[in-house]
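User: Hey, quick favor. My workstation is busy. Could you predict this chain's structure for me?
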Amino acid sequence: MADTTRTLPPDIEIARACKTQPIADVAARLDISDDDLERYGKHKAKVSLDLYRRLADRPTGKLVLVTAITPTPAGEGKTTTSIGLTDGLNRIGKRATVCLREPSLGPCFGMKGGAAGGGYAQVVPMEDINLHFTGDLHAIGLAHNLLAAVLDNHVHQSNKLAIDPRQVVWNRVMDMNDRALRNIIVGLGGVNNSVPRESSFDITVASEVMAVFCLSESLTELRERLGRMIVAYNRERKPVTAADLRAHGAMAVLLKDALKPNLVQTLENNPAFVHGGPFANIAHGCNSVIATKMAMRLSDYTVTEAGFGADLGAEKFMNIKCRKSGIRPDAVVIVATVRAMKHHGGVALNDLASVNLEALDKGVENLKKHIENIHRFGLPVVVAINSFSTDTPEEIQFIRDKCSYLSVKIVRADHWARGGAGAEELARAVVEVVEQTKTDFSLLYPDTCTLWQKVGIICREIYGATDVLADKKLREKFHALQESGFGELPICMAKTQYSLSTDPGLKGRPKTFDVPLRDVKVSAGAGFVVVLTGDIMTMPGLPKAPAAEMIDIDENEMVVGLF
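Assistant: No problem, here it is.
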């Protein structure tokens, strides 16, 4: 998150001024040989899966998860903090690598912007990372849409699987915000154009293929998971999978190169893996398991992030990614800003620069809840106060006093303006906590809980809800999934990121609220059950003034207007 009260060059200019090193030199810092690199130009490369296999028995370094308080328009700066912390760790003598998600083009051309950090805490080449990169997202979109095409062709040609066109649950995707494609009709134009039916588009990062991709550790596992994905139901209401359509092999071929993790660098030439990028409110919101494990086997410290606040990204990181992969964090950094906490306390965006301890007192309750949630997993916490020039020592001390009973380190960090030098204190705090704290990591619930019980545990313990609401028909769907053999899968809650509740208007730490459930569906390939609350959009729309209107090429063939 940029501090608009201080003047720095635009992110793109800072990135261009960086003295990048050849990617082979960056790889050498992790003892990755040239033979294991597949270069995409001078400054980015894919790393071979053969190296990943050879590293399988190597001891792992420490893992630090970066999460945040509930997001606000005032900004938190999770990705920037992940990068700054990595640079700070390297500055104090630790071999550290950052693992991030790949940006989607939708937010880049829409409203949110890119996902390569900001200020002097960025990964580069920033333009490439935010625009196409190594083509991974396009490969995922092609694999997804190949399955959609095979499905419609099967119904058109013979329909030997007796697929009910009214029960097709596999739509299409594209890596762009386009609200006009949220609901569509396919198959129009006569008998040669398949069977007409209602369908829709999602953005590519919302595809189950993306979730499968990020949880798979080999091409064999990827192919098997793809085959398990449910695409439709037949006339007897039995599931039809990608393997039933014999499409999973070709999908795996399209993803063969994409599965290799991407290596780039920070502005300070430290290694960064940027690979995979599922949505955090409808999927598990973390980078690939392959990238995380490779970094852990090559580094003293690996810093990774989970999407949105700790109630969404961090909860799913623990209960889905850790459960599936066997990894566990050694510490968690929760990112907050004084401005965001004041906004949670009711202060308007235009008034956040003024000291307001009464509002800060209300807003800090959100931070406290997220700290408590991470402690619920048996993990130590360091709070990073992402610095703004309008912050006062009085406000920082106020936050420390309010959180003192939780026994967490609260460190002010200035990496946006100063790079790794501004995160050295944070890095030292993280190392001290990791090296001096004995963790007792535990998942939130066991596999043996019923699906309904798991939902209740998340809603009550993580969100702070009073009750979970669902009508009779939805409860029957839970029961049917339980009886169909999906009962031991973890839960992936789909809810708004803007509140601990399901109401985006409830800021801070809401009290006495219920969680009404809208639907439940299984992502059999990814291996979790998605529970939907509220009106979660899987195909975002462009804002009134999209960022695309500002992006252009100048007379020197340079990109302009990109952040």
